[in-house]
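Structural prep section.
Before we set up the soaks we want a predicted structure of the protein with nicotinamide-adenine-dinucleotide in place, mainly to decide which crystallisation condition to try first. Input record follows.
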Amino acid sequence: MAFERVGVVGLGTMGAGIAEVFARAGLRVIGVEADAEALARGRGHVERSTGRAVDRGKLNERERAEILGRITLTTSRDDLSDADLVVEAIPEILDYKVALFKDLDRICKPETVLATNTSSLSVTAVATATGRPGRVVGMHFFNPAPVMRLVEVVGTVVTAPDVVSGIADLSARLGKTCVAVGDRAGFVVNRLLLPYLNHAAVLLDLGVAGRDDIDAAMALGAGLPMGPFALLDLIGLDTAYEVMCVLFDETRDRRHAPSPLLRELVTAGLLGRKTGRGFHGEETAHRERDRAEFITFGVEGDDAGPIVEQLLRAGFKTSDEPDVVLRLADRPVIEHAVRLPTPSAMVGVHLVGDRVAEVASTALTSPAAVAAARDLMKVIGRTPVPCKDRAGFVVDALLYPYLNDAVRMHDSGYASIADIDAAMRLGCGYPAGPFEMLESIGLRRVRDGLRALYAEYREPSFAPAPLLDHLVTAGLSAFPRP
Ligand SMILES: NC(=O)c1ccc[n+]([C@@H]2O[C@H](COP(=O)([O-])OP(=O)(O)OC[C@H]3O[C@@H](n4cnc5c(N)ncnc54)[C@H](O)[C@@H]3O)[C@@H](O)[C@H]2O)c1
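Run finished without errors. Recording the tokens verbatim:
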């Protein structure tokens, strides 16, 4: 399947980048916008983006001129009659897309492949609006398109197999890694990413931990490129809300219902970076907190030795009746607290990676004990993440259901382990895919953590995926790969 002339409809955030990607790979591009003003904006996007590439030494002026020379801009869809492929990147509204595809079906030659860049709408619904459903696919690029290396190619039940393979080959020619999947809401990346982001908003709403603490926990503790609220602000809260609605419509999974906090912020017009304020943007005044002048400490739990040593070396003292008892745990500590003569002194401490310590206060913990625990964690070089004494605290509560979702996705036959890992690494910039993370944390640990989450929240989808459970029961430490 030869693709030499490619149309791109809608030259906004995504379309302009997609046009640039095609032109960089040597294809001729016809960019279509709604009106002259939008066309000028689209031209500006491409000129600025390629200009930045020159500044960074990625392109020279001649290459830039060649790329721009390959892109023709127009406001007339009729100019697409000769295109081999048309990629649509207009707003995420099904009625708009259906109307556009009907029109493209009329204008383009019968063999032209029509592709949608939709993030969450049904590709099948768009395809069946045309007289050529076999030649319609999803071609889902990531933002910014010239930089992100992933393309999800979405075939429907009626897409011709050679169209999917043709678009997959084209993606490789564009320098992208392609993951070919079926038409399910959210495909791979959004289906796994958005529920995790939504869950973070739910935990914030429940008061399990604060905004900056959750962001720090996931960035520094779980090693993700940024925390969930920073990422939601980047994606746009309205977009995230819409995708959650589409996921919920398809799955009816309560976890896919947009968090009420997300809805409130969207209704208030606080959409994230595009409006200057979302979850971030207005700094809340820092509360004055109790500071312990002199701290005596105790440490309980497995592996207490190294922390005791570090704190003694830093000049802190142990005592029979310490100001704070640090209970090392990855589960709630209230049952240990109630056995102490002074339960108010106990704080749960969960060490996450090398840089974070979650500091969990129970219903009985005193503010002074929390303050002391926070200070002591800083002394041993860790960022304290204050949180409530809940199953999974912050990191495990957010990470494990995401990993579980990936296992269920694979087990359902939707995508392979290699494709899911590649999609999350390349589409989100994660340091590792979910299966790589699962295997490095340990299958048993994740399975047991999920059981604890399920026992506490009674959320059906927190129950360990049967495949994960079976692998642990069989004593395996890795997922079988073909
Ligand atoms: N923004 C992202 O991060 C992202 C990532 C992946 C996929 N997507 C998907 O890409 C699509 C576009 O999103 P975006 O963020 O680029 O939107 P955008 O609002 O930045 O751009 C949409 C563009 O389409 C133009 N347009 C509207 N109606 C048109 C028409 N009838 N004909 C021609 N042009 C028209 C608008 O003028 C605008 O320039 C959506 O389906 C979205 O879900 C977005």
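Observations: The longest strand covers residues 346-352.
Flagged for discussion at group meeting.
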